[in-house]
Amino acid sequence: MANADCIVIQGSNMAEAHPVGFQWVTEAKKRGARVIHIDPRFSRTSALADKYVPIRAGSDIVFLGALIRWVIENDAYFAEYVQAYTNAATIINEDYRDTEDLDGLFSGFDKDSKTYDQTSWAYEIDPETGRPATDPTYEHPRTVFQILKRHYSRYTPELVEQMCGIKREDFEYVARSITQNSGRERTTCFAYAVGWTQHSMGTQFIRTAAILQLLLGNMGRPGGGIMALRGHATIQGASDIPTLFHLLPGYLPMPKAGTHDTLDQYLGAVGDKKKKGFWANGDAYAVSLLKSWWGDKATPENDFAYDYLPRINGPHGTYQSCMLMLEDKVDGYFLLGQNPAVGSANGRMQRMAMSHLKWLVVRDFNMIESATWWKEGPEIDTGELRTEDIGTEIFFMPAANHTEKAGTFTQTQRLVQWRHQAITPPGDATSDLEFLYDLGNRIRAKLADSTDPRDRPLLDLTWDYPVDEHGEPDASAVLAEINGFHLDGPNKGEPLANFNEMRADGTTSGGCWIYTGVFADGINHAANRKPGQEQDTAAREWGWAWPANRRMLYNRASADPQGKPWSER
């Protein structure tokens, strides 16, 4: 971002919500970069920007679409970049129909299932080469470029005025700013936060911005891209070692029922040996993960305990869970660092859903609304719910804050940093690590004599971390387990140095392949703290970045087709 010549902040109050990151905006501005803030609300970010453009909430996709139209109509796209690094010249199947042909729908829509069959969206195949057909002149009406041009032709400056409430001169100011600051010598970046991600059309906002940035040649280049500004210091970490229902650690997919019923089926889907890049060794990452979780109980004979993994059979996010609660299909619910009673969309539905539970565990610093809705919620005030009729048993468990526990956080640039414990949690407060470790021990003790096969995944877990005098598990031991170990051979017992050492034969373990190396040589590299002035600009000795402590990742588009930098700057 510090290398950008123009910065567009949209869906974020970056100056106040992300002040550390905003320093790079100010650094860029000192160099002469233009800063534009597009937001429904005037904030400190607006005050510090060169231009504030007010926008009607939820209309971002119209504004971005109009910018795409403006770029194409004015031939302001970076032609050499678009030709080399996008699919603009690729020809689409002749059966494809766009929204202007089908009254707002794309071809392949099934009214009953309300899903798309994407067959007609495929590329047309050249019979001579067997590869997707292309037209480098973009004249063929079914090139991606021409389809894009037709699709966005409706997004006019007049529509922007009508839908977004943005004056034409303000729209054109933004359009000129981003095009004049894009191309071979200059780059523009977009930055967004929860103003986009939490919107019902957030995915479409971000994808549209990506199309715009590809046309301008700003993806994969210094000072370009689309910056996701996270709402928490370790949102990246919560994706890496995920709190997401469809992922396993390191972005391995969750097995799907009926598709990945066997280990071979799963590994075939995860790691295609014909592919280049990281995922060619996906089988080693997956097997090492299974060995990390189930140790000696994961053997080649039982497919490394693959059957212990649950299967997903559809979406299992918070809103799907909420709907199942309303149908009395969910007995219990854990809330750790979440407050859906007021912090999720449709708070009323969330509160009503929790009233259908048998039990609810809330862990937080304070007695939040998700712990008190049963006596102080809006539905209690209106009489829609009565405290005496609610059967949910609620357990409030005080949690330690970030100064009261040790562990890592991983920020947007993939930098894993160790947080030392400063003080002991007060009273009954505990870290999430201690709470979950203790809960696991209690459940395992209750199931110790069980012969039910469904209990084996819990009983066979590797669950033996060292604890201190207060009962707090050693967080660095957990990080070492995540890093992984050699389980056999001359290096048996030693930490893995990097993910390339992982094997699919059960001779290595590792709780998250992208973090392998963070504990290389038995050293907690996340705790590295060598000051920047004592090392080079890559700062490889401050914390540790995944993968393999690589601080900068540029893709092929960062250089021209001849392999030379787009700009000598």
TrEMBL record:
Entry's localization field: Cell envelope
Keyword Transmembrane helix part of the UniProt annotation: no
Keywords assigned: 4Fe-4S, Iron, Iron-sulfur, Metal-binding, Oxidoreductase
Source superkingdom: Bacteria
Protein name: Molybdopterin oxidoreductase domain-containing protein
Family listed: Belongs to the prokaryotic molybdopterin-containing oxidoreductase family.
A Pfam entry, by short name: Molybdopterin
